[in-house]
């Protein structure tokens, strides 16, 4: 029973085909009403399919396609849903050149947004989850889409990707939230996707203004240490996490320079999420009032 | 009109873009992306001053491709100057071919919006090893490939396995001929080497007629036509650049001297029938007289008109697939003496069976 | 002016807090940040002087973005 549906994920629309029941189930659970029968203007045509051959039976595999392109090696079929999520990120990261795209989580309060750029292992997604379920609006878990020559960030609301230990933590904290099945032993370890709160989904067309850039580092032995970064340091760290700024050229460079000139940059080391939230609220959200 | 017909109509008359029903853009954009033609069409629409009249959906995807193409165009100039500098101590001046040459020499016309994944250069055969070693010293390394493919490249083809710059990711294809020598059709390369020009920025490329013939050989002396339509539009745009009778004569004479008259004839025939490309009457008649239609012409027409059309699996029918097979067989037949052909097919096909049984990843060398 | 000595395709920005300057090569995509202000860089470029110690390798990195006056590595280290 191959499934052929569309995902309305502003600012993009994906047409998704799959013959893997696991993928269909996860899509329905996590995306809810964003999964529709057929949308009129799909931007990307993606599919996850069972691999052919003996691999159908012996350690079955799944393959991801962006239309006719296959950017990844096949993965185990139990990882197919995670593969689809990564594949959709791949489409945006390699094709979309009219936003400056940063590998960062984006959370907002009162339409004031904070960017959390971070390499894997920094605890970014745990922080994202905690904030998203404590009154902050999730704009994105992986990709900040910044309007060139502005501080405006466009939401691209998608499920949050949790890894390894953070899976247990999230399930303890928010047992009623909607989780995907586990994709085990991926290149990132065990991975699960978590649907953000309905309020974040509902505001997925509402841009926000960036007021700060915070580089998170989880440290089990540190409640909260905060270091204010100078602007040169902030810029260099931000540029390292940029997907397409080398391609889009001067517009990307100028956008990031102007952004850094106008907002504060911090690096934080933490294990106490409530303290982090308090700091963000006071230092970045209330400061502009 | 359907998606594929739109692609053909729009290259002939870009201003028609303003009349395309909004819903049709979905398939048009999809086909253009598959053929790597988004940026080229975008440029055509701008030239015809219709770009701004297009629906936001179309403009969005066209503009993304334009930005990528612009970056590539800037980068190729940089990469080319790196290569020239690197090879200078060897007294080797690389000859830039195909996509890179279009950007370097014809940036205002065919080069505009033309995208490609690697930079093709031609160097003297005796310099190949020293070129490969010097590039390796400066960070260009071969990609992992199966021992069989390595062997095939080295033994039978007109190029060596591509090398990739370790940090910038640029891929360089190094050729010593334009056609695999094993085919027995490899031209005496010196015929081409009398048709060289140096661009204003100092890069060595083929003259317009020689560049066009190379493009023709590359398209028609081949077994795969993944970007068949894209390559046909290359030819169409190259032919549009011909301004003087002497250029048509040069094209005809070079094709005759190198033994690629059939390919020239077929290229002109399909450019004319598919894209309505205009040719001088005396040139075309001379070509027809010299070559003439063969008794297999109907089969060739059936096959080539399909493989050179803007294709996509969502619109393919059984005739399209048959055409692919016919052209694939013909391409292999042209390129290899029979014994090697059989051997190559056997190896490819037993590999095919293994892939079918074990999955594609079985053969793919681990990538970083 | 700093802008006059940039290599081709290189753009530059000095930050408002005086923490430093970043360069971007629009062709290679290469980015470089240094903790020197525009004024410090201008002095370095015009007469090879700087009040912070600039290491040879930093000078080498800068030479990919700027036309620097030629000087011996020994002097740069001093």
Structural features, described:
The complex is a heterotrimer of chains A (289), B (368) and C (78). With 289 residues, chain A is an alpha+beta fold. Chain A has helices at residues 21-31, 80-95, 124-132, 165-173, 198-202, 231-240, 245-248, 250-262, 273-285; strands spanning 3-9, 12-18, 35-36, 44-50, 61-66, 75-76, 100-109, 112-117, 137-140, 143-146, 152-154, 160-163, 183-186, 189-194, 208-218, 224-228, 264-270. Chain A contains 9 helices and 17 strands. In chain A, the strands form 3 sheets. Chain A has a 6-stranded mixed β-sheet, covered by helices on one side. The model of chain A has no long low-confidence stretch (mean pLDDT 94). With 368 residues, chain B is of the alpha/beta class. In chain B, a hairpin with a 5-residue loop joins strand 6 and strand 7 (204-206). Chain C is an alpha+beta fold. The longest helix of chain C has 10 residues, at 38-47. Mean pLDDT of chain C is 79; it is low at 71-78. Chain A binds chain B through residues 40-43, 45, 51-55, 61, 63, 67-68, 73-74, 95-98, 246-249, and chain B through 23, 26, 30, 33-34, 57, 60-61, 63-64, 67-68, 70-71, 74, 312-313, 355-361, 364, 367.
Q: Layout of SSEs?
A:
The complex is a heterotrimer of chains A (289), B (368) and C (78).
Chain A: E1 3-9, E2 12-18, H1 21-31, E3 35-36, E4 44-50, E5 61-66, E6 75-76, H2 80-95, E7 100-109, E8 112-117, H3 124-132, E9 137-140, E10 143-146, E11 152-154, E12 160-163, H4 165-173, E13 183-186, E14 189-194, H5 198-202, E15 208-218, E16 224-228, H6 231-240, H7 245-248, H8 250-262, E17 264-270, H9 273-285
Parallel strand pairs in A: 2-4, 8-15, 15-17
Antiparallel strand pairs in A: 1-2, 1-3, 4-5, 5-6, 7-8, 7-9, 7-10, 10-11, 11-15, 12-14, 13-14, 16-17
Helix pairs in contact in A: 3-4, 6-8
Chain B: H1 3-12, H2 25-34, H3 38-47, H4 56-87, E1 95-97, H5 98-105, E2 119-122, H6 128-137, E3 140-142, H7 147-156, E4 163-165, E5 171-175, H8 189-193, E6 196-198, E7 204-206, H9 208-220, H10 228-241, H11 245-258, H12 261-275, H13 281-291, H14 297-307, H15 318-335, H16 338-358
Parallel strand pairs in B: 1-7, 2-5
Antiparallel strand pairs in B: 1-2, 3-4, 4-5, 6-7
Chain C: E1 10-14, E2 21-25, E3 31-34, H1 38-47, H2 56-62, H3 73-77
Antiparallel strand pairs in C: 1-2, 2-3
InterPro entries (chain B): NTP_transf_5 (IPR039498)
GO molecular function (chain B): transferase activity
Pfam families (chain B): NTP_transf_5 (PF14907)
């Amino acid at each position: 029973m191959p499934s052929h549906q569309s995902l309305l994920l502003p600012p993009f629309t994906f047409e998704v085909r799959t013959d893997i029941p696991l993928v269909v189930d996860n899509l329905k659970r996590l995306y809810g009403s964003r999964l529709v029968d057929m949308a009129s203007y799909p931007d990307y045509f993606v599919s996850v399919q069972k691999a052919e051959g003996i691999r159908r039976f012996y350690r079955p595999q799944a393959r991801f396609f962006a239309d006719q392109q296959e950017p990844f090696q096949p993965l185990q079929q139990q990882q197919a849903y995670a593969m689809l999520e990564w594949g959709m990120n791949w489409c945006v990261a390699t094709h979309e050149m009219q936003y400056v795209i940063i590998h960062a989580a984006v959370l907002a309060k009162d339409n004031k947004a904070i960017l959390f750029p971070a390499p894997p292992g920094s605890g970014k997604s745990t922080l994202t989850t905690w904030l998203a379920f404590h009154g902050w609006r999730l704009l994105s878990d992986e990709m900040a889409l910044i309007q060139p020559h502005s501080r405006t960030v466009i939401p691209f609301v998608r499920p949050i990707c949790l890894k390894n230990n953070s899976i247990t933590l999230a399930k303890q904290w928010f047992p009623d939230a909607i989780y995907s099945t586990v994709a085990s032993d991926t290149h990132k370890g065990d991975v699960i996707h978590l649907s953000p709160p309905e309020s974040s989904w509902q505001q997925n067309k509402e841009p926000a203004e960036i007021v700060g850039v915070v580089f998170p580092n989880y440290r089990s032995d540190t409640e909260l240490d905060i270091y204010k970064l100078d602007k040169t340091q902030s810029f260099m760290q931000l540029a390292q996490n940029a997907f397409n700024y080398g391609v889009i050229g001067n517009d990307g460079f100028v956008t990031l320079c102007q952004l850094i000139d106008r907002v504060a940059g911090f690096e934080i080391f933490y294990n106490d999420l409530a303290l982090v939230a308090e700091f963000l609220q006071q230092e970045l959200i209330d400061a502009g009032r | 009109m359907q998606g594929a017909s739109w692609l053909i109509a729009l290259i002939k008359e870009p201003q028609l873009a303003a009349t395309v029903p909004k819903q049709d853009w979905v398939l048009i954009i999809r086909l253009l992306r598959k053929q790597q033609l988004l940026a080229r069409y975008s440029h055509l629409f701008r030239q015809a001053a219709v770009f701004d009249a297009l629906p936001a959906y179309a403009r969005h995807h066209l503009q993304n491709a334009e930005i990528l193409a612009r970056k590539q165009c800037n980068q190729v100039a940089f990469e080319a100057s790196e290569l020239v500098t690197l090879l200078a101590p060897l007294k080797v001046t690389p000859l830039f071919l195909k996509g890179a040459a279009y950007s370097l020499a014809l940036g205002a016309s065919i080069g505009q919006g033309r995208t490609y994944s690697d930079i093709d250069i031609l160097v003297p055969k005796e310099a190949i090893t020293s070129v490969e070693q010097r590039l390796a010293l400066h960070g260009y390394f071969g990609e992992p490939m199966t021992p069989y493919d390595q062997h095939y490249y080295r033994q039978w083809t007109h190029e060596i396995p591509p090398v990739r710059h370790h940090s910038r990711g640029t891929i360089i294809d190094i050729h010593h001929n334009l056609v695999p020598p094993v085919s027995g059709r490899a031209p005496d390369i010196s015929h081409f080497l009398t048709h060289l020009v140096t661009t204003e920025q100092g890069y060595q490329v083929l003259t317009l007629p020689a560049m066009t013939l190379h493009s023709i050989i590359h398209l028609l002396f081949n077994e795969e036509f993944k970007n068949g339509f894209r390559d046909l539009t290359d030819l169409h745009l190259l032919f549009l650049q011909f301004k003087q009778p002497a250029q048509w004569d040069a094209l005809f004479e070079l094709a005759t001297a190198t033994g690629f008259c059939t390919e020239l004839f077929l290229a002109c025939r399909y450019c004319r029938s598919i894209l309505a490309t205009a040719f001088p009457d005396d040139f075309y008649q001379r070509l027809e007289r010299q070559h003439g239609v063969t008794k297999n012409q109907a089969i060739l027409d059936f096959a080539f008109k399909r493989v050179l059309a803007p294709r996509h699996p969502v619109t393919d029918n059984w005739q399209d697939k048959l055409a692919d097979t016919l052209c694939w067989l013909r391409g292999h037949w042209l390129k290899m003496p029979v014994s090697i052909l059989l051997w190559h097919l056997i190896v490819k096909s037993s590999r095919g069976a293994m892939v079918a049984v074990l999955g594609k990843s079985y053969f793919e060398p681990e990538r970083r | 002016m700093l802008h006059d000595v940039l290599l081709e395709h290189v753009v530059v920005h000095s930050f408002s807090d005086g923490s430093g300057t970043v360069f971007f090569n629009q062709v290679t995509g290469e980015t470089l940040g240094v903790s020197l202000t525009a004024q410090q860089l201008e002095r370095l470029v015009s007469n090879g002087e700087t009040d912070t110690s600039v290491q040879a390798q930093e000078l080498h990195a800068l030479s990919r973005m700027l036309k620097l006056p030629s000087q011996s590595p020994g002097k740069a280290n001093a």
